[in-house]
Design a protein that fits this description.
The complex is a heterotetramer, with two copies of chain A (384 residues) and two copies of chain B (126 residues).
Chain A: E1 6-7, H1 18-29, H2 40-59, E2 67-70, H3 73-87, E3 94-98, H4 103-114, E4 118-122, H5 132-138, E5 143-147, H6 161-171, E6 174-178, H7 190-193, E7 197-201, E8 212-216, H8 244-260, H9 264-280, E9 285-287, E10 298-303, H10 308-314, E11 318-319, H11 335-339, H12 344-348, E12 350-354, H13 361-381
Parallel strand pairs in A: 1-11, 3-4, 3-5, 5-6, 6-7
Antiparallel strand pairs in A: 2-8, 7-8, 9-10, 10-12
Chain B: H1 9-17, E1 30-36, E2 41-50, E3 53-62, H2 65-77, H3 90-97, H4 104-123
Antiparallel strand pairs in B: 1-2, 2-3
The chains are: A alpha/beta (384), B alpha+beta (126).
The complex binds pyridoxal-5'-phosphate (2 copies).
Chain lengths: 384, 126, 384, 126
C-alpha cells in the first residue's frame, strides 16, 4: 500500500489553511495577554478576539454581539439544546428534532429525557429531507425548542430551514440549527434561516479543531442556562479564559471561507458530480440522500454485495468514512442511513466521500479508480 | 479497536494475498455454506479430499477483513488434516488474528461452513 | 511610556514555550485526521493524543486513563463540581468549599444552589490558609463534595490538601482540587493530594490557552454527570472532536514543566523574595497571604495611601493584575483579599506580581524600581 | 471599559502631567475637602481669588485616573472664572474625559470639594 494517499474525509475534519496556521502562530508568539486583563497585552488580546468575532459574524451576516465562542460545535449544540430546554422549562418540556441529527444534538436530547423532558424525533423521508409540515404537526403547546440541522454530516442533504422556522414561529418554539457542516460550504445567513440559535464549527472549514461558536439571536433573545459558570466571559454564557489563537484561527478561516464562497461551492459540487458519475457506472451503487437538495462537499453511496468494513480496508490509501467520523470503526451501521430506510447490511457497505479546498479532479479520478477496483475485487470473492 | 492499527499485520497480509480464494473448477469438491444476516457475512468453504485427508481448501466470502483473513489461514493449513473430525477452534483463530471479541460470531460462521463441507466429505456429496 | 515593557502577569496567562508552539504547528500541518476516524490520519491523531495524555499524567503521577481533556481549567472545575454534585445528589446535597476559591469553582457552586444544593463556604485565616479541621467540622452526613484549591491564583498560598483529604475520607465526601495554578509550579502528585478530582490548565505553565484536563480517580471512581453529550469522546465524560494540536501543546508544556521542576520553582521563589525585599523597604507595603506556605510564582502586596487603579495605570509599562485577571479592570476590590480581612480600600490598592520561565532578575529589579517610583509619585499627590 | 484603551488620551495626558497638582505654599488659599469612603477617594481643592475671580486652583488627591484627570482639567480652567456661583458640571466633566458611568460618584466628590472651597472664598477662610 504505497499508493499515494488521498484524503477525502473533509467532513470529519479539514487541514487548517496555511493562513490560519500563520495567524494562530503569530498570535501564540505575540506578547502574552489574558483577554480579561486590563494591561496592554490583555487589550491586544481582546482586540484580536473582537476582530475574529466580526469575521465569524460576517460569514452568516450576524451582528458580532450575537456570536458566543465555544470549544466546538458539540459544545455549541449542547449549549443551545440543554441551555434552551432548561432555560425555558417553565414554559414547557417538549422538544422536537430529527432521527438523522448529529450525536451532539441527539445525546443532549437523551440527557434531557432523564431530566423529565419529552422529545419527538421525526423520521425524514427516504431522501433524508424533513417535511416542514411534519415539524408543525409535532409541535405541542409545551414545545419550547425545535432542532434541525442545515446540512447533514453523513449524506449532505440540505434542509429547508426557513420553512421549518415558519412552523416554529407559528407554534412559539425556538429553533436551533446545527450548521457545523454548512458554514462556508453553502451560502446562508442567520436572517435567511430565521433561527434563534445556530451552531458553527471552525475545523470543518479549514480552521482549527477545538473552537466553534453559537449564534444567539438578539431580539428576541432566547433564554439559555449556561453549561459552565465562572469568570463571566462571553456575556456569561461561556466562561473560561478565551483561547485567543483558536478564535483568531476561526476568524481567519471564516474570512477565507467568505472570500471563497462565490466559487468554491460550485467547484466542489462539480467534483462531487464527477465522482458520482464514475461510481454510478458500477452496477449496484446507490446514492444516499436527495439528489439535488444537498451541500456540495459530501457524497454518500451504498454498495451492493460487499462488506463495508472490508471495502474500507481495501481502500486503505483513500481516507474516508463509512459513516460519520464519530461512528466509524465501530462496525455499527449508520443510524442516519437506517433512518432513511437502508437495511443494515447495505447501510454498513456505505462510503462517505467529502471534499475540501485542496481536493483536485486528479484525486477524484484516482479515488474513483481505486473504489472501482476494490469493489470488483471484493465482489469477485463472493460472486453470489 | 486499538488506538493504533485496526488490523494485525497478519490480517493485512492475508487480506492482500487471499491465499486459496475463489470457487474451484472441476468436480470432486464438497462445499458448505453459512451466513450471519446481521452483518451480512456469507461464507462458502470448498474441500477436496484424498485418502481420508484434506487435499485442498478453497472459499468464497463476503465479510470483514478478519473473516477473510481467517479463511485464508484455513486454506493454507487444512491440507493434510484428517477429514474425520475436521474442525477449527474459533477462539484460537480469533486470537491468532487479533480479532476483537465482537468478531467471534463471524468466525463461528466459518466453522459452520467448514463443518458442513466436512460432513459432505464424510457422507458423500449430493 | 516608551519604557521597556515588563510582563509580570504569568498567573493570568503565560506565553507558550517555543517548543510548544513548534509542536502545535507541526500538528496543524500534519496530514489531517479526526482522532475518531479509522483511517491512517485518524490513527496518527489518536497516537498524538495518547502520547500527550501520558505526559500530562506523568507530571502529577496519574495513570493516563485518569486524565480527561477539557477546554481549560474552568471547564474542568465545572465538570468536577456540577458533575459530582449532580451525579451524587441521591447521596446528599451539601457541598463545602472556601470563599477564596476561583470563580470557576464559586460560580458552579452558586448554580447548584439554584438546583437545591446547599454550600458551606469556609473563610480562611488572615494568612489565606484553610484549617483542615474546619473542613471536617463543616462536613455533614449529606456532604458529597469538598472543593479546595492547591495554589490560590491571587495570593499564591498553598493549602494542606493531604490533611483536608483525610477529613473528606472520614466524612465520605469526594475531594476536588483546583490545581490550575499549581501544576508545574510546585511538585505534587495526585496520590500525595489523595484527591478524587484535580483540575489542570495548560496556559498557566507555558502551554496553549483553551485546553486543560480533569484528573478523575480510577478506584474508587467518582460518579460524574457530564456537562455535554454526544460523540462519546474522553470516556463519555467530555464529547467533541479532540483538538489534537491543543492537546499536543498541553502535553509538550507538561513535559517541559516536569523537566524544569527540579530547578525552576527555586529560581522563581528567589525572584519572588528579591522583589519582596525591594518592595518591603517602602513603608506601608503589606504582604498578602502566608509568608512561607506559598507557591513560588506569585507575590501579592497591598499598598497604603494610594488608589489601586491609579497605581495600576501609573505602572502602565509593567503588566500585572490588581486581582485575578478575571476581576481586574472592574474596579471591584478582590473578594479574595476581602476574605482575608483586608478593608476595601487597601484590597483595591493591591498588586499581584507573577513570574514565569522568561522572568529575569533584571526585570524584577526594574519592576521594583518602577513600583517604588509610582507609589512615591502617587503618595506625593495626597500627603495625608 | 471598552475593548481597547481603558483611558482616553486626555486622561492619560493629564495623569502624566498633573497640571496644578500639589499643596500650594503661602497664605491666601481657600480649601475644600471631600471623600468617598467606598473607593477611598479623597480630594482637596485649593482656590486663590483676586477681584472676585479665581486666580489659581491647586489640588491634592488620592483617586483613580479619571478623578486625577478631572482635577487637572479644573486646575487649568477655573482661573478667571467668577467666584460667585463657581461650580462644575460633573456629568459634562465625566463625558469630556470618557469616564464610565460608575465613575460619576467620584466626580461628585470633586464638586463637593470645589463647592466647599468656593464657599470659603465667599464667606472668608476660617
Ligand atoms: C453536523 C455536526 N454537528 C456537530 C459536530 C461536532 O462538532 P465538533 O467537532 O466541533 O465538536 C459535527 C462534527 O463532528 C458535525 O458534523
Ligand atoms: C485557580 C484557577 N482556576 C481556574 C482557572 C480558569 O482556568 P482557564 O483559564 O483554563 O479556564 C484559573 C485561571 O484563570 C485559575 O487561576
Amino acid at each position: 500500500m504505497s499508493e499515494p494517499f488521498i484524503y477525502l474525509d473533509y467532513a470529519a475534519t479539514t487541514p487548517p489553511d496555511p493562513q490560519v496556521r500563520a495567524a494562530m502562530d503569530e498570535c501564540l508568539a505575540a506578547a502574552p495577554g489574558n483577554a480579561s486583563s486590563s494591561h496592554v497585552g490583555g487589550r491586544a488580546a481582546r482586540e484580536r478576539v473582537e476582530a475574529a468575532r466580526a469575521e465569524v459574524a460576517a460569514l452568516v451576516e450576524a451582528p458580532p454581539e450575537a456570536i458566543v465562542f465555544t470549544s466546538g460545535a458539540t459544545e455549541a449544540d449542547n449549549l443551545a439544546i440543554l441551555g434552551a430546554a432548561r432555560g425555558n422549562a417553565a414554559r414547557g418540556r417538549h422538544l422536537v428534532s430529527v432521527r438523522t441529527e448529529h450525536r451532539a444534538v441527539l445525546d443532549p436530547l437523551a440527557r434531557l429525557a432523564r431530566e423529565g423532558f419529552r422529545t419527538t424525533l421525526l423520521t425524514p423521508g427516504r431522501d433524508g429531507l424533513v417535511d416542514p409540515a411534519a415539524v408543525g404537526r409535532a409541535c405541542e403547546p409545551g414545545t419550547t425548542l425545535v432542532s434541525v440541522m442545515l446540512v447533514n454530516n453523513e449524506i449532505g442533504v440540505l434542509q429547508d430551514i426557513a420553512a421549518i422556522a415558519a412552523e416554529c414561529r407559528r407554534h412559539g418554539a425556538l429553533l436551533h440549527v446545527d450548521a457545523a457542516q454548512a458554514a462556508g460550504r453553502v451560502p446562508f445567513t442567520v436572517r435567511g434561516l430565521d433561527a434563534d440559535l445556530v451552531s458553527l464549527a471552525a475545523h470543518k472549514i479549514h480552521g482549527p479543531v477545538g473552537v466553534g461558536a453559537l449564534y444567539v439571536r438578539r431580539e428576541p433573545r432566547p433564554t439559555l442556562v449556561p453549561l459552565s459558570f465562572g469568570g463571566g466571559q462571553e456575556a456569561g454564557l461561556r466562561p473560561g479564559t478565551l483561547p485567543v489563537h483558536q478564535i483568531v484561527g476561526m476568524g481567519t478561516a471564516y474570512a477565507l471561507a467568505r472570500a471563497a464562497l462565490a466559487a468554491e461551492p460550485a467547484r466542489l459540487a462539480a467534483l462531487r458530480e464527477r465522482l458520482w458519475s464514475a461510481l454510478r457506472s458500477l452496477p449496484g451503487v446507490h446514492l444516499n440522500g436527495h439528489p439535488t437538495q444537498r451541500a456540495p462537499h459530501i457524497l454518500n453511496v451504498s454498495v451492493d454485495g460487499v462488506d463495508g468494513e472490508a471495502l474500507l480496508f481495501a481502500l486503505g490509501s483513500v481516507a474516508l468514512s463509512a459513516g460519520s467520523a464519530c461512528n466509524s470503526g465501530h462496525g455499527e451501521p449508520s443510524y442516519v442511513l437506517r433512518a432513511l430506510g437502508r437495511d443494515d447490511v447495505l447501510a454498513q457497505a456505505s462510503l462517505r466521500f467529502s471534499f475540501g479546498r485542496p481536493t483536485t479532479e486528479a484525486e477524484i479520478d484516482l479515488a474513483a479508480q481505486r473504489v472501482r477496483a476494490a469493489v470488483l475485487r471484493l465482489r469477485a470473492l463472493a460472486p453470489a | 479497536m486499538s488506538t493504533t492499527e485496526p488490523y494485525a499485520p497478519l490480517v493485512a497480509q492475508l487480506f492482500a494475498e487471499l491465499p486459496g480464494a475463489g470457487r474451484p473448477a472441476g468436480p470432486g469438491w464438497a462445499c458448505g455454506e453459512a451466513r450471519e444476516p446481521l452483518s451480512g457475512t456469507w461464507v462458502r468453504v470448498y474441500l477436496q479430499a484424498a485418502a481420508g485427508r484434506v487435499a485442498a481448501c478453497r472459499y468464497e466470502v463476503r465479510g470483514c477483513p478478519h473473516t477473510v483473513a481467517a479463511l485464508g489461514l484455513l486454506a493454507t493449513r487444512l491440507a493434510g488434516q484428517a477429514v474425520a473430525g475436521l474442525d477449527v477452534d474459533p477462539a484460537a483463530l480469533a486470537r491468532e488474528l487479533g480479532a476483537p471479541a465482537a468478531k467471534l460470531g463471524r468466525i463461528f460462521v466459518i466453522q459452520d461452513a467448514l463443518r458442513s463441507a466436512a460432513l459432505q466429505l464424510n457422507v458423500g456429496c449430493p
